[in-house]
Amino acid sequence: MLDRVLNPATNTPIFGRGDSTPVGWAVSRAPVAYPDAVAAMEARAAAIAEGTAGELVWLLEHPALYTAGVSAKSGDLLQPDRFPVFQSGRGGQFTYHGPGQRVAYVMLDLTARQKDVRAFVAALEAWVIGALTHFNVEGAVRDGRVGVWVERRTLGLPPAEDKIAAIGVKLRRWVSFHGISLNVEPDLSHFSGIVPCGVTEHGVTSLVDLGLPVTLDEADAALRLSFAKVFGEVTEALPPV
Q1: Around Cβ 91, how many Cβ atoms within 10 Å?
Q2: Residue 37's closest CA among 122, 125, 108, 97?
Q3: What does the DSSP 8-state code read for residue 91?
Q4: Would you say the C-alpha torsion 177, 182, 184, 186 has a positive or negative sign?
Q5: Rounded Cα gap, residues 36 and 236, in angstroms
Q6: How many angstroms separate the CA atoms of 66 and 76, rounded?
Q7: Helix or strand or coil: residue 159?
Q8: Residues forming beta bridges with residue 182, ordered by sequence position
Q9: Long-range pairs for 148-152 at CB < 8 Å and ≥24 separation?
Q10: CA–CA dist 114, 163 (Å, integer)
């Protein structure tokens, strides 16, 4: 997967910018309310499109909640009263966000990179897959299933695949927002209130569920290193909220 977005000869990011301008990298230490995050993303994306702000990756946690993407089916919300539910303009179906899950909102200017939505999504997948390799986890993508998956093997049982990261983005004037969510150590029982991304044949997992005592800070470090390989260098920035 990484070969699709990295030049194997030079190891340079082929979804990088045409110049060497670094991307802002911001981390919020306290949970951020979902409506506040959406408002901040939309404002930043508009400013990027206008040329008055730079690109930004924003890492955060949300309080426990469900979001419905533009393709969400009402029947996939199994427990509507369990957590707050928010309509979202991102692609995809229902997903869960909550403590222990690293959400990374990605506000990039594709006019300075590639006006290619499929290549952009593939780059996001490769970013997550590259980060997982830091923990010796082999992530993969599957046709017809959005997100990043890991194979689990149990003695005496056929292999099973669980989702470890979700991807859902929106573009406006060729500037992206929303992004990815990586399960580091969330309460996986919280996913039972929805059909995650409309997929019933497979489950969800996390790094801790796989037996890896990874912290959010460690996940952030891996995400940062992998991002630089796929999209280009980053620089410290303040969260928009």
Answers
A1: 17
A2: 97
A3: S
A4: positive
A5: 21
A6: 11
A7: coil
A8: 102, 165
A9: 149/202, 150/205, 150/210, 152/205, 152/210
A10: 28
158-202, pLDDT tens digit by residue? 788 999 999 999 999 999 999 999 999 999 999 999 998 777 778
- DSSP assignment letter at 191: G
Measured CA to CA, the distance from residue 139 to residue 40 in angstroms comes to: 30
Tokens of 226: 């992998």
Catalytic positions: 197
Per-residue pLDDT tens digits for 49-91:
999 999 999 999 999 999 999 989 999 999 999 999 999 989 8
150, containing H or E segment? strand 145-152
10 Å CB burial of residue 121 (0-12, 13-18, 19+) is: middle
